[in-house]
Ferredoxin (Amycolatopsis rhabdoformis), 87 residues
Amino acid sequence: MTSEVTEFLTAGLRPHECRSCGTIVLVKKNSLAHTSIQWTTDASRSCPVFAAHVAAGRHPALLDTCEKLADSISDAVADGRLTVRDG
């Protein structure tokens, strides 16, 4: 991977710990509507919501996101722990 591609994919990612389960992901808020999440672990094992999805026989890729994680990220933006790149 070129350094430009790596920079595009990873620039601005910050660790965030889900307040619900403690799973740590990398997050970048490009705008209020756009959130990039990079899992650093196997989501189907570290996130109870993804684990329940898999236990019910559904593929983890069919679950868009964990709403508890999304709420945790939103709260981090609201209290200033995560910043939005476009202001």
Remarks:
- The longest helix spans residues 67-78.
- The chain has one domain: 3-78.
- Helices lie at 3-10, 43-46, 48-55, 67-78.
- The mean pLDDT is 90.
